[in-house]
Amino acid sequence: MTAPHTDVEQVEAANTAFYEALEQGDFEELASLWLTPSDLGVDESYHDPADTGVVSCVHPGWPVLTGRGEVLRSYALIMANTDYIQFFLTDVHVSVTGDTALVNCTENILSGGPAPEGAGEELGPLVGQLVVATNVFRRTPQGWKLWSHHASPVLAETDDDEDDDTPA
Asked: 134, 142, 146, 157: which has the fewest C-beta neighbours closer than 10 Å?
């Protein structure tokens, strides 16, 4: 067993690697960061790795995705339809208990879609989004791997919301 502070550092590194792979559009690296059935001792010759349900993911506004195949397909789809994405993580908190780690953070996301027709190499309009996320990691012989990712949008207050608090 490693020292608790070392575990926290390793989980932070795995969490950072997840977001960097997504930013760089590196699908192979991203896939390597998710648990496989063999990481949990599941014999893949008797279980379809795409259907074992060992991993799960909730993207903002999406239903729950379960199974490695379904989760990885969602990231392939996101990468194929996002020309630019950058994550600025804040409020990062790591908790490790045994072989399980929990990371709570705020994803400050800047993303851009395809450029308008005839715009050349330009990006489409950049959009900012604030999302809170929980990433669950499991210790494996190959290091910490993602078990679950759950992200929910943060609803921003508007000036109208402040008016609701004023007495009539």
From this structure: 157
